[in-house]
Specification:
The protein is an alpha+beta fold. The strands form two sheets. Strands 5, 6, 7, 8 and 9 form a five-stranded mixed β-sheet that branches. A four-stranded mixed β-sheet has the order 1-4-3-2, with helices on one face. A hairpin with a 2-residue loop joins β2 and β3. 24% of the residues are buried.
């Protein structure tokens, strides 16, 4: 079946790739003018530059406003939700606070967004017996 692959489109692919690289702990496998590929054994994430004429029509809110009007929300496993919050904040994104967390199928889950408003979800495994 292969490794799961996701694409995220961004105005600044280097900045968005730094966010996901740090958040997910995966390294840059390949980089070019128009894209950055992050990869590990379990995942490949490609951040692709949004080209003109679409790019000029996109205005990022300041402060960032999460774009939740999408049919897809990528959900990534992380080791620690609190560490993910700190990392996201340092790199221009947000992972919502503990009051927004919920449990589902053996994970503690919370939503957030990257530096360009793209919605993302992170989840950490619950301790056995939780």
């Amino acid at each position: 079946m292969g490794t799961p692959w996701f694409a995220v489109y961004a105005l600044d692919p280097d900045r968005v790739a730094r966010f996901y690289s740090a958040l997910l702990g995966i390294a840059v496998a390949e980089s070019s003018e128009g894209f950055v590929v992050l990869a590990c054994d379990d995942l490949e994430l490609t951040v692709v530059r949004i080209r003109e004429p679409l790019a000029s029509d996109i205005v990022l809110a300041d402060p960032v406003e999460r774009r939740e009007d999408t049919a897809v929300k990528p959900s990534f496993v992380v080791a620690d939700l609190e560490a993910s919050r700190r990392t996201a904040a340092e790199l221009g994104g947000v992972i919502d606070g503990p009051e927004r967390e919920w449990e589902f199928r053996g994970f503690r889950i919370v939503d957030g967004h990257d530096p360009e408003d793209n919605v993302v979800q992170v989840r950490a495994a619950l301790a056995p017996g939780s």
